[in-house]
Model the fold of this input.
Amino acid sequence: MSTIVVVDDDADILGLLEYKLTAAGHQVTAEADGEAGLAAIHEVKPDLVVLDWMMPRMTGIEVCLELRKDPELADVPVLFLTAKAQESDVQRGFAAGGNDYVVKPFSPRELSARIDALLARTR
Amino acid sequence: MSTAQVLVIVAITNMALIIGLAVATALVKVRRERKAKARTLELGMLRPILLSYLATWEEGNARDLGETLIKHRSRATSFEEVVAGLLPKLRGADRSVLVDILRRRGTVTKACADTKSWRTVRRYQAVELLGSAGVLEGTPFVAKLLDDSNADVRLAAVRALGRIGGLEAATALLEHLDRDDAKIPPHPVTMALLRIGTDGTEPLLIGLTADRVNVRTIAAEVLGVLGIFSAAPYLENRLSSDLHASVRVGAAHALGRLGMPSSIPVLQQSVAREQDVEVLTASCTALGRIADPSTIPTLQGALGHQSPTVRLAAALAMILMGNVGMTRLRLVAQQDALGGDAAREILARYTISVGAESALKA
Amino acid sequence: MHDFLVDFVNGFNSVVIIYFLILNSFYLGLVLIAAWTTRRTTRMPAETALEDLFANPLTPGVSVLVPAYNEEKSIVSSVHAVLALRYPLMEIVIAEDGSTDNTFEVLRKEFDLIPSNRIPAGVINTVGAVNSVHVARDGRLVVIRKDNARRRGDALNVALEYARHPLVCMIDADSVLERDALLHVVRPFVDDPDRVAASGGAIRPINGCPTDRGVIMDKRAPKGWAPRIQVVEYLRSFLLGRVGWSSFNSLMIISGAFGLFRRDLVQEIGGLTPESLAEDADLVNGLHQRMREEKRDYRIVFVPHPVCWTEVPENLKILSRQRRRWSHGLLQVLWRFRRMMANPRYGRVGMLVLPYYLIFELLSPVVEILGLIAVVAGFALGMLNTTAAVLYLLAALGYGVLLSIVAIVVDDMTYKTYRRWSDLAVLVMAAFVENLGFRQLHAFWRLRGLWSGLRGSNAAWGEMPRVGFTAAKATA
Done:
């Protein structure tokens, strides 16, 4: 059982991921904007973060960069889940410290598989 | 009637209208707020069921949830509304599961029937739903609406065909565009074809030799973006022999994207002989994408062209050839002749050696 | 003699009343058309269209033109706000207009500017000399340093000369745009590429709306009465007026605060007119004139979806200056395009729109003030029929209130902008206040603007103190 923080300003996706990951046995914290997400990450110290990119207040890229500055959180796997699909965007996501990058529209099944793989790797 | 009497009538009507409007609006607002509350309540009940279903259907013990969703009778809100928000964001098995529920509720059949409604808004909404659901059986109904009397409905039909996908959809789009009385604009069609992807290869290849310039251009651009290598010889043919510049531009773009060395001779010929500035620029850019140093001399020739856009494109292409190109470019940059300016600007922008791909972003 | 005066005063009053009845009835017609169009458009949501527009690699690029004069404090955040807009392909072209502060330095540092050899298109004559051209290393920004020519239009023209994309967007530096704003206004071009020449978005006052880093958090009615009245005005004229005009291709103004144009067409008509005080109206009419003279099939479209929020004057003093400038500008525009007036060659624009603007917009303050004087004089001289006076108030002014309320209602039904009952109530009150006192004051300001226009329209430019871009930022 792992703790996961999900940050996405889309209520539908946020709800879907919360349900799905909880049903899979994880402990999920869901936040709807970058700032709140970062605060939650600092508080919860999760095993994995699912991060949207385009959000109000603070973008996913900014959150990830902030994360990586904190020595305690520098190793937390980050999975980007975003509609930004250009090659350059993917590059930027990884450059900011992301561990995986899934483009929207996405397959929840595939996402689960990727999350499981990331969690397995860091155990 | 005297002026005074007219004025009295006008004034009273005026006051009555103002008061009437205010009261009517207030009533409507109250009713709407009540409906919104009921809607939120119903949504609050539906969403968890839906999300739970999506979370657990794979395990196989979600049948009850599924049945609830299928049998749900909408009151304040519609199940379709809830699903409509989710569908465009998902892919894969989970999405098929949702669409399946819609089918079993009869939504899809109803939407197909609604495409024939006399009410514009209903036709529009039906088309959007069929597009979101992406159900192949909707293709003929949606394709019919490419001829709709309302422009917004026609555009929605184009977008929906893109989301539904499949060979039929691509054929319908290109066939429709290839008519004298085509009522759909090229740009949304391009996007739809891009969404359909390689399923549309056949109609796209046919489109390369269509009668209308529009169609040929779009076909060329889309084939390039989709990366359909088998199209290369046909595109080369278009670049060298099509009479219309826009088609040649499309072909050059596509050949650049496909990046096949076999296209080099045709592209070089284009750079050497073309009169049209746009085609020239596109061909230079294409050579840059293929990045074969043997093309440097040709590009250097283009560096001296009178159009600044061509010079810039040639310089950019040269820098993508790596060290050989850059050295040559630096030589040109030191001269005052035509081409020096382009060389200098490109060199200034890319003095830090960047990967070829990100350089092309410019 | 006395009888004659009485007849004259009463007759004059009748004329005034009829004038306002015609004006308001015509406006009501426009409003009803607009209400119908707007409701229909919102029941056909745009999400998938905007989605496709954003994802399409062939979506036309937009060059955002920004004239900048002494904006060192705000220019960086303004540029970032535009860069944050959701649009796949854009560049920002800044014409740094001979600033005396550190505007350029600030830009250079923030965006890593290097010298560029980009050359101008060479199509439009510009006044202020261009000194140097710079690009950001990642190509998103182009900055042109030029000499100040005391005209915003000249800076825009210079920016236009260096723009690269097929569509150019003109914005006020301090407008707040919604994230999908560009997608909304580009859509008409993409859906009808052969005909659409320009598109404009709806402007709303941002006063009173809490914002956080350039994003509007909540839509509230402003606190002062001056901005409240302007909210109602903007609803009436943008939401309804312009949608109505646009529906029969007679849009005369695309606000300088947010407009999108085809670059090639703007270049064809020689760019903007730098001397104009209403360069936005000037540009649109220039397009109308050229298109109609060449008998080209075209459309100038208004996008009703609220996309642009701008700061409006908070106090009457600055508001008065703005309105005077608008009146002056309108006179200039009508004078410059007088050839089109009542000329069937120019279709609806010549036969309907320009005469309307002349009679019912430019000259309405004249009628209003004279009517007021006549009523007051009539009272004073005891010649006036009290009933008629009261009825004049009800008919002319009450009708005005009705229109404003319709505007508020339509906005509420369609966009639900102001959620709270209290905000709506405040706006309704503003509609009343607008007609009792503000309107007359407004007419007086416009009269002054008209007068300075008549005096100054042939005189040198230097006479009118350039209120310029700073006026838009006017807060107390």
Summary: Residues 63 and 108 of chain A are 23 Å apart (CA to CA).
